[in-house]
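Please fill in the sequence for the structure shown.

STRUCTURE ENCODING:
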């Protein structure tokens, strides 16, 4: 399967910049503080809901091919896999060995629009919405004025520039060819 590379780090499933990275950061900080320990998903959902209300989109520059845009987005997911951020299918068309990363960028949103879009993500109805820019690529660059949190397969990483690319077919994996998988099958 493919491997993603962000600067000098690697990821197998995916990475996020924006809202989902902030949720991961809030969860990380809570786990490393004196906060009362709660169980698994309920703790994660607490951070999802809190961050949904408090998250502030940041100015960024995105370079994709010969296109450069200055924008603010709510969420940026870059993935080989389909499920990220606690099981959400943010990149439902991703194929793990096609030599491309699937990108899901959701525009800056008001709180009611955030809730509406989160419900669309849960129902896997978000990719055709006008606030979502969904595409595949082998390289993309995100640049911010200051360091921001990102997560690579759930691990926190802080930087101001994220050069993300794919390294095709770098991992040999075992899977059930008759099962529910997301690989191109070689015949």
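FILLED IN BY: designer on duty
SEQUENCE:
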């Amino acid at each position: 399967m493919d491997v993603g590379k962000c600067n000098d780090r690697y990821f197998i499933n995916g990475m996020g910049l924006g809202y989902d990275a902030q949720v991961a950061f809030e969860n990380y900080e809570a786990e490393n503080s004196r906060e009362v320990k709660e169980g698994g998903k309920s703790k994660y959902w607490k951070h999802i809901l809190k961050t949904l209300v408090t998250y502030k989109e940041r100015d960024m520059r995105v370079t994709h091919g010969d296109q450069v845009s200055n924008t603010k987005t709510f969420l940026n997911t870059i993935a080989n896999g389909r499920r990220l951020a606690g099981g959400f299918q943010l990149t439902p068309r991703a194929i793990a060995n096609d030599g491309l990363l699937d990108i899901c960028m959701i525009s800056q949103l008001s709180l009611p629009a955030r809730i509406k879009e989160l419900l669309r993500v849960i129902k896997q109805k978000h990719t055709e919405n006008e606030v979502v820019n969904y595409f595949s690529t082998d390289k993309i660059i995100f640049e911010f004025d200051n360091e921001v949190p990102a997560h690579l397969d759930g691990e926190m990483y802080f930087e101001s520039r994220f050069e993300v690319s794919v390294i095709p077919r770098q991992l040999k994996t075992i899977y059930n060819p008759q099962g529910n998988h997301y690989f191109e099958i070689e015949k």
